Recover the amino acids of this structure.
């Protein structure tokens, strides 16, 4: 069996690289072309640099094998011109030269060439240098392929993110709808709600509902955690405070067929059992639920781990209520204490989440009770939704516009004028 001579490697049919061969010697080109074609390369020939540039622009070779000394533009100059025009894909450039001085070789490499061959070059050395160049080109192809796959993946992720954003925006709109109207009126009382998630959706909820012709209820909930999981639990809890007596856990019909509300402490125990026994979730929530008599102004509320309610009296005095209490859904058989107070005409009750209490300034100082009290004092003459908006802007101003937690609040105001004012009018 005959074999090819050592200086004539067998053709590699898997190799489909295109080589631009530039040499003004027809004999030199013919000899090199034979070796290249036998090795499986596609060969494009050019007599000089001008022809090479035209071939480069139309054929887009992978490798350029160019003589150094040619009429007109030299090999290094051709290399510089090709590098300046760019190609998208990298072109491996090999200079053929009889110049063996280190300075000449350095000049060729600094012109942008990747390698050089001293003429006359054997077929074995030529193919070895080409294989070395192919390894470089293959690394580039692999990198480009990986980049393309990454780009496709990123495009898919962006599309998925856009779909998620649309869904979350819709979820946010629906969640905002859970609190109903941002403001409600019960006789001489006005209830204003704030719900401002830190993300698309959040775990806070506030609201109010009529109990009967004399009483109404208000609630504030803050579910542990953030995002979709917290929002789902919030939506589940919203049904416990709906306007329907069949769904509202706070409402019942007494023996006379009249609507009434369970005691706030009783509701706290019920919801605690619901979280631990029925929902069986690792989450928990803090809550304030208050029953308000719109005729007498009497208030009964339960504080279950929620930040302290704040009362601002008609005279401007600030009072903090409660001792904290246990969150709902943490300890089985937890008990809750009720707080009783009275809201006279001109008084108002603020129930704010920790997203407001814990807002921090640039030095890390929390807003806290003192900050909220100052906001109430500063905006003493501002009422209703205007007061809620003023509170939001004040808190964001304090935190430098940063919001790291959901912000929610419910503001209950006894709008009738104080008796002293009415008497003097």
């Amino acid at each position: 069996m005959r074999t090819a001579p050592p200086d004539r490697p067998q053709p590699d049919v898997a190799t489909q690289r295109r080589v631009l061969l530039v040499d003004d010697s027809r004999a030199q080109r013919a000899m090199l072309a034979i070796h290249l074609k036998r090795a499986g390369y596609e060969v494009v020939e050019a007599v000089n640099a001008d022809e090479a540039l035209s071939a480069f622009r139309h054929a887009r070779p992978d490798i350029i094998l160019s003589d150094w000394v040619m009429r007109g533009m030299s090999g290094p100059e051709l290399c510089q011109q090709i590098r300046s025009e760019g190609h998208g894909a990298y072109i491996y450039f090999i200079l053929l030269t009889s110049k063996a001085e280190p300075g000449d070789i350095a000049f060729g490499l600094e012109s942008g060439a990747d390698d050089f061959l001293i003429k006359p070059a054997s077929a074995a050395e030529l193919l070895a240098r080409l294989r070395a160049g192919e390894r470089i080109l293959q690394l580039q192809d692999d990198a480009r392929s990986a980049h393309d796959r990454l780009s496709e993946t990123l495009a898919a992720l962006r599309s998925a993110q856009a779909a998620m954003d649309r869904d979350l925006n819709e979820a946010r709109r629906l969640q905002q709808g859970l609190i109903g109207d941002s403001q409600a009126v019960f006789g001489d009382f006005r209830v204003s709600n704030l719900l401002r998630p830190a993300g698309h959706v959040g775990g806070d909820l506030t609201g109010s509902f009529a109990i009967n012709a004399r009483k109404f209820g208000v609630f504030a909930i803050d579910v542990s955690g953030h995002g979709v999981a917290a929002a789902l639990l919030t939506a589940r809890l919203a049904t416990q405070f709906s306007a329907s007596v069949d769904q509202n856990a706070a409402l019942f019909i007494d023996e006379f067929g009249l609507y009434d509300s369970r005691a706030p402490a009783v509701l706290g125990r019920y919801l605690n059992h619901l979280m631990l026994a029925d929902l069986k979730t690792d989450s928990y929530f803090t809550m304030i639920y208050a029953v308000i008599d719109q005729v007498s102004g009497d208030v009964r509320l339960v504080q279950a781990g929620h930040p302290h309610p704040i009362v601002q009296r008609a005279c401007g005095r600030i009072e903090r209520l409660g001792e904290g209490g246990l969150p709902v859904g943490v300890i089985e058989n937890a008990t809750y204490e009720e707080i009783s107070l009275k809201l006279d005409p001109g008084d108002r009750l603020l129930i704010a989440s920790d997203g407001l209490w814990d807002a921090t300034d640039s030095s890390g100082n929390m807003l806290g009770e003192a900050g909220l009290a100052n906001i109430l004092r500063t905006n003493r003459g501002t009422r209703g939704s205007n007061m809620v908006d003023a509170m939001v802007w004040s808190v964001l101003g304090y935190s430098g516009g940063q919001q790291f937690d959901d912000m929610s609040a419910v503001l209950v105001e006894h709008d009738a004028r104080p008796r002293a004012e009415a008497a003097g009018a």
About this structure: Residues 123-178 form the longest helix (56 residues). The domain at 18-146 is CATH 3.40.50.2300 (Rossmann fold).
